[in-house]
Amino acid sequence: MNWKEKMIMEIVSGRTGKPHVTSQQFRQLIEGTVGQESCILASGENLEPELASNNSLKIRSGMLAHHGNISSVKIGTYDAVNLSNGSQGMKRIDLVVCRYTRNAETEVESCNWVVIMGTPVSSNPVAPTYTVGNLQEGDLVDDCPVFEVHYDGINVTEVKKILSVAPNLTELNSKTSYNFDSLSWTNPTYHITKKSGIIHIDYHCVVSGGAPGISFLVAKLPSSIYPKNTIKSQAWTANGSSQRHGASIEIKPNGQICLVAGDSFVEAGFTVSYPL
Fold it and tell me: Which one of 112, 139, 166 terminates a domain?
């Protein structure tokens, strides 16, 4: 930026006597509230995909935020996207992207669904590349990948939604409780809560056969609160004399919680928090 240029503060949310709010300013507002990353906003049917056939994908109503830009499929409608044929005996991954474009001459902006075809291979297909743009720097094209379409031969085997649905303010400010999906140690005392997008787990259990150096599967979380990456944190154990010792836990992306202790124990516990 040339700091020698004269800078003038502009009012955005007030009348000036003429049209003055730009799409760039609106995107700045969205970036400051929703963030610059891509997500689906909680609206309509959250852009849920429905495979109508091997050549047609329906995308239900919803709203998409990408780099500050908002696009939508109207409530009560759906968009139909044409898919290409698969290849006999080959595997492939196609990308369905929401493509932002701006006409350099007219300055008209638009968003449309575009299918980017991947490369057919005999095994281990990968998603194709796409255009990464920056709207605030004036790029003319910016792709937002929303779905992966997986092919095995001529058939579509999976339509994978890449983006998650962002929690709204009510969800962020509310406190939600959860239960473990499964337990390895019986009758534990625990609390699992989510508030402001943060998961808090407080756990304690009396056990038998607690041996050092063994990775014990403690429990498994419900899929809605799996961590995105492996979480490692401190834990504690206690022996029959109530002497406490250090231990560690690992929460895996598949929701499994494992504990390893350095000494024999009859009690174990931990407190951990992580963002979703």
Answer: 166
Structure tokens at 196: 């402001």
Asked if 12 and 21 touch (Cβ cutoff 8 Å), the reply is yes
Give the CA count within 13 Å in the CB-facing half-sphere of 87.
Answer: 13
Give the single-character DSSP code of 223. G
Is the pTM for the entire model greater than 0.90?
no
Residues of the domain holding 73? 23-166
> Rounded to an integer, what distance in angstroms lies between the CA atom of residue 4 and that of residue 139?
24
Contacts of 44-50 with C-beta under 8 Å, sequence gap 24+, read 44/72, 44/73, 44/75, 46/165, 47/73, 47/146, 47/161, 47/163, 48/161, 49/147, 49/159, 49/161, 50/78
Q: How far apart are CA 136 and CA 23, in angstroms?
A: 10
Is 8 part of a structural domain of the chain?
no
Give every CB contact of residue 254 below 8 A, 6+ residues apart in sequence: 220, 226
Q: Given a cut of 90, is residue 99 above it in pLDDT?
A: yes
Give percent of the chain above pLDDT 90: 78
- CA angle at 260 for the pair 256 and 264, rounded to the nearest 5°: 135
DSSP state of 127: P
Residue corresponding to tokens 């560690």: 248
In a domain, 111, yes or no: yes
Which band of pLDDT confidence, cut at 50, 70 and 90, is reported for residue 7? low
**Same domain, residue pair 140 and 234:** no
